[in-house]
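Sharing in case it's useful to others searching the archive later.

Someone asked me privately for the predicted structure of Malto-oligosyltrehalose trehalohydrolase, so I'm posting the question and my answer publicly. Question first, with the sequence:
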Amino acid sequence: MRFEVWAPGATRMTLHCGDVTHALTRDPRRPGWWTGEAEAEDGTRYGFAVDDGPVLPDPRSRRQPQGPDGPSAVVDHGRYAWQADWSGRGLPGAVLYELHMGTYTREGTLDAAAERLDHLAELGVTHVELMPLCPFPGRHGWGYEGVAPWAVHEPYGGPEALKRFVDRAHTLGLGVVLDVVHNHLGPSGNHLPAFGPYFTTTHHTPWGAAVNLDAPGSDEVRAYLIGSALSWLRDYRLDGLRLDAVHALHDTRAVHFLEELSSAVDALAVELGRPLFLIAESDLNDPRLITPRAEHGLGVHAQWDDDFHHALHTTLTGESRGYYEDFAGAPLAALAKTLTGGFFHDGTYSAFRGRSHGRPLDRTRVSAHRLLGYAQTHDQVGNRARGDRLSASLSPGLLACAATLVLTSPFTPMLFMGEEWAAGTPWQFFTDHTDPGLADAVRRGRRREFAAQGWAAEEVPDPQDPATRERSCLDWSEPERAPHARVLAWYRELIALRRAHPDLSDPDLEDVKVTYDEHARWLAFRRGDVRIAVNLAKEPTRIPLGIDHARVLAAWEPVPPPDASGALTVPGESCVVLTQV
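And my answer, the predicted structure tokens:
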């Protein structure tokens, strides 16, 4: 088997394969690369030593059986016999479901999660979006401190388990999206700096050194990250990737890393003959991110829309601290603006940032399916002091209203696991750092962060306490009992409506018409022949729809038809979906 590694500063490289050591030679065609051959097969352990230093895992390791600090293992992707005949499932018309592997089930494994995929198929979602799966020290964590971006975390089951999960999902008609982190690596178990200039001090991120995308040596670093992305899509048959915090990808080159990545993914889609897509997390509100490359954009296929979330969250809860302050003055107006324009901050002043922010979307050119809309995500739940979901403070009626606004919006909807049944379990920030100093620093940093918001230290869960992760696991007995069963039925009904009525999946922002009353706390909007009315007040209210002949498609509480004036009386904390007849 041929082994290769990029180590441009090395004077000597050795391969330690099994019990045999081999001297590698420079590749005369590729500067900085070292190559050699050794007897190996699937499962063979190996590593590299730079200038007679310690044996380190392969930067492109496909498997780390003993964790990030142990030897790498050879993976023969051709050994797996795929069962599903899968032609792919693209993003237009999709409904996504964000899932954390370590808490979706109490077992916290890919195989255990695969046994629960029937629930998602029955719910009606189209894609499962997995939070990061790359190896990190310890067993449990969110996954954003992974250090081996070509491998699968061994406690989750490793590479074969991910293939079994994808195969099962595809058999059920579900696409699979993976969250990948290109902007940083975790602080523990990261051995890349020993091999080459993977990081740069030219830029900085909130998580440490920035990945080298534009300094000397960045050609190979970019190729390393793109190769990892393509490997997930090709070797594991994934349908898309979610790109974490792309605003932290610092790149001053003329061809941005994201443009290069989107071009490579589009080329792979042609090669494989099935749709592939990229979804970015970005707080820049810059339409160029999701504008096609042919129109001088970066060509990313979609992005999370936090403005929609913030407007919706503020409308539902009345919260006004932090970034919610920009939306709290007139939350229904903010919500109406995002429903029709995508972004709330489109060049407007942001008090939270102390400056103007964003740029308008061209509604005639940008399809709304390129924006993901959601009421909850791992960030918006887990980054709260106690990891409390909306279900901890809102009535079932208001939760139904939130679901209605997400699932009838013009955006690509995304749900966070357990949301569909108003899960009573929190989802908290948890870690399992094996370095005692790092563990203590994370614990103290978390408490210091929330102390500034008035939280006492003992009120903030200890991330290192195993009980914090245990509390965050879904309780699969809940969907069968009240009030969870009713909320679940409502989600299923809304998703079925979205699939059955083309107007609800029409991504034309110009066709969305919204009316609202800030004081009375109601909002109504039109999607073609479909009308959606939401009453967030406790008391019934009359909402002028302007139509007197309509058929109710779904209602949280029973509602009479519109009266002769075209007004609809909606019960308190309730919602209704109608179609014009």
